[in-house]
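Re: that backbone. Tokens:
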């Protein structure tokens, strides 16, 4: 073959390469076999999905990438004291108690070892107030509400909860069999809680309820006869009546006034951790972990009558 012929072939080959690069990737030609074509498309889609970052992977939701308060550490917050069955012996770092166990499950889902978890203490009301936070995630039976979403972020819910009325043998509200029977009672609840809201919406008492800084203060007021009854979430009600309040009785659950009340983790408004933490909670719900932990730690929360 002549050198002139070789030169022409080289020029044509170069032009073909340039045209191909300008035109982008070519779509594969149908094979004529619909099943083979469908399998090829599914394989391509799977390959693309495998590249997306997932919770706990070396993507956006890993300890190396998450913009936490302290790099490589996940800081949780709860109250002082923390009640059972949410935390055992007021020790959130033990991993015992429903909320402590859920916190460590979320940390593990995000790729954090237990020794990379830190705890701080904050009052309930301060945690859901606007402003910078000294934690990445807080849990202290915080019910998710639209009003609170104006000040803080929430994950998706990790537990559906009901409110309950707790009284003491001999107190005026102990024998109440209906909401109407509680109307003239002096009731109490912790400031800023859905327990306080439930008193106003479900019972509408004739006298203003007493407001306390914590459930601990509310419990002491009931124990000392300062109030006829207090309202707390149902798991706390079972613990208070079984352990903390001698002669304590659960009068009954308050009715739902709308959608189910859910507890969620609280984060700073606009936190870079919110999306990943929500993915972690969702994954724990889907794989049954949240249900298993609720069965382990909250199994006795049943049987309280519903007040009408």
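Recovered sequence:
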């Amino acid at each position: 073959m002549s050198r002139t012929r070789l030169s022409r072939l080289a020029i044509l080959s170069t032009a073909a390469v340039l045209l191909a690069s300008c035109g982008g990737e070519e779509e594969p030609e149908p094979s004529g076999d619909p099943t083979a074509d469908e399998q090829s498309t599914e394989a391509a889609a799977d390959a693309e999905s495998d590249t997306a970052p997932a919770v706990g992977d070396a993507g956006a939701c890993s300890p190396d990438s998450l913009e936490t308060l302290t790099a490589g550490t996940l800081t949780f917050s709860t109250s002082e004291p923390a009640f059972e069955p949410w935390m055992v012996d007021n020790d959130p770092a033990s991993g015992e108690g429903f909320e402590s166990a859920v916190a460590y499950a979320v940390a593990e889902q995000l790729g954090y070892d237990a020794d990379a978890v830190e705890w701080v203490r904050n009052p309930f009301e301060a945690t859901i107030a606007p402003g910078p936070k000294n934690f990445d995630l807080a849990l202290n039976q915080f019910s998710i509400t639209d009003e609170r979403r104006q000040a803080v972020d929430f994950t998706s819910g990790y537990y559906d909860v009901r409110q309950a009325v707790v009284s003491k043998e001999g107190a005026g509200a102990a024998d109440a069999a209906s909401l109407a029977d509680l109307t003239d009672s002096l009731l109490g609840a912790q400031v800023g809680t859905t327990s306080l809201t439930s008193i106003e919406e479900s019972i509408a008492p004739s006298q203003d309820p007493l407001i306390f800084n914590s459930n601990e203060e509310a419990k002491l007021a009931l124990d000392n006869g300062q109030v006829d009854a207090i309202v707390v979430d149902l798991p706390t009600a079972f613990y208070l009546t079984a352990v903390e309040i001698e002669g304590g009785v659960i009068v009954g659950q308050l009715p739902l006034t709308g959608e189910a009340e859910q507890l969620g983790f609280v984060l700073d408004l606009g936190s870079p951790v919110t999306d990943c933490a929500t993915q972690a909670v969702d994954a724990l719900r889907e794989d049954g972990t949240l249900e298993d932990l609720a069965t382990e730690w909250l199994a006795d929360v049943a049987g309280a009558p519903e007040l009408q």
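The chain has two domains: 74-160+261-298, 163-253. The two ends are 100 Å apart (CA to CA).
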